[in-house]
Amino acid sequence: MLNLDSGIQYLKGIGPKRALLFEKLGIKTVDDMLTFFPVQYQDRTKIVSIIDINAYNQSQSCIFGRIGKIYEKQLSKGLCILSIEIFDGVYLTYARFFRKRNSYFDIDVFASIKKAFKSGTFAYIYGGVKVEIGGNFIDVDDYEIVKNKKDNPLSFNRIIPVYPAVEGLNQKFIREVVKNVLELFCKSYPDISGLIPDFDGIPKLNSSLAIQKIHYPDSLENAENARRSFALQEFFILELAFSLSRNNIEKNRKIQKYEIQKTLLTTFKNNLKFEFTKDQKKAINNIFSDMQSMYPMNRMLMGDVGSGKTIVALSAVLLAVENGYQTMIIAPTEILAEQHYLTVSNMLAGLDVEIVLATSFTLRKKSERKKILAGFENGDIKIAIGTHSLIENKIRFKNLSLVIVDEQHRFGVMQKFAALSKARSPDILMMTSTPIPRSLAMTAYGGMDITTIRQLPPGRIPIKTYSSSEQFAYINTIEELRNGNQAYVVYPLVEESDKLALKSAVRESERLSQTWFKDFKVGLLHGKMKPSEKNEIMQKFRNKEFNVLISTTVIEVGIDIPDATVMIIQNAERFGLSEIHQLRGRIGRGFKQSYAYLIADLGTESVRKRLSVVTSTNDGFKIAEEDLKMRGPGEFMGTGQHGFHKFKAGDLIKDANIIEFTKDFAVKVAKSDPYLSKDENAVLKKLLYKRFSNKMKLVNVG
What is the reported pTM? Predict the structure, then answer.
């Protein structure tokens, strides 16, 4: 007998082949199908008389009338048009279908339509209205045939759901399957609405009713109310998982203890040529408080590009080291790991602390690898900075107490979990320079405490950003190069693509070195290079052996070149706003005026709107808000790598207040019933373990 956990291949009309198509939409089980909610709706409640469709030119409308004659016409390049008379008793219009005919096969591409549209019967038509010379037309998106005027249609006179689709699954078929599943299984969906207090005028709908109304609402207002009602339950389950996971951490007291001894920290602070900002001081206080508590720290440090997160992290490192412990700083790329190594080495110059860079490049020599691994095991190496190489099984630490993961969103969940497994109960500090809106941060990092650094160090000059032509960008760049400064030119592709009409880094480095930058030295950097090659190129650029660096997004994070004052981003329309902001953050690292030029195809209003956001502000948090609105959380976070939870009805932009509410309520429930053993929480416990049973230990690592 089928239930919510059954595979959809067993549903009527699907089978194994169609099940594979549905799997592309993330649908594997009956539960998935039941909560496969519409992305939008078509309001077919208003049937327009044919005389009035002149007012709906280019827009979607519904009409109803008797079917008359059918006309077929061949257009150019095999395109055919079928026009059908529709008469509403007063006026006549034509319903049009377009199809392509293959000249090699004598097949009637309109056969099924002609069979359906029998003269004398009636048709409901939904489509785009066109007022053209020769009459009014409606280009058909959907239709339904009825025998007489009094018959009730299934897909008209109501609001119709529109679902995500893939080739091979049309809207009509998806609606039929979903409707069948609703009738058979909706009432068996587990409900926890009675456990959640009333909130902000959201109707108290049980799960089955909310699901019904999301798929087939009486009005668009009802659809939104049902969505919010279901989202309330959805967010509550997630926030409860975070709260229970946090409670579980706090049961396990850590073995390491820290005292502020001021042996290393005071010397480090005195050696700095600047004062900490207020945000940096607050972040350090938060981190030190966590580290000195009896439970492991689990904190996210979030800050805009250039906000000084490294200094904050280094303060935490020194607190651990002066108490005799080892620390690990793990970065996603060798270039960034090396950047951290150079920065940390310079800042700790004169202090008796052994620091090692551990990457596939530095560990490749057997003798060097043996020495480094021994230093980790005997505790001599206090600060390990590296890449994924640090999480390999062969690397063991004597007394590792602090793990710092930089640009954490570039690591998979399991990679971060492996890093934390290097110690018994490590203090965890995740860092990101991609500012994340609060609502998204609470769901992406709900099991972590979050510290945000918004202030930039004093003296930083805001970068001037322009949406410009190539000529304008290159002329101004040459002026900067003549003044002894350096420039990046970034491309979305490494090599030219047959499918995408975009410029490539390899081809353009050849062209630019022979044209605009013929009087300067040009370097090339991209992700397909070997790590040793990348490091060599960056070192040469750092030493000013190159004036211009042609690159892909491999330089998005971590590169700190004080004399780089120009960033040219080609095909800027291909990048997310936050990605552009990250790239732009590679310049303006010193105390010189810097310039970013965005070269893009401005043919659409959406591109112009997106780029105007970046050119109007340097505030990464404002940019992230807009980026989230335009791209959605999945693309913004990179769900494949991040493991980001996908919501069925919840909306991270619209539902920020729901997230706040469910977070607070979840904390109360987790505190009052930490094992969900009360009878009233039985269904809640079942839902929680269904969603998160195999993920609970990973919740706190993003």
Answer: 0.71
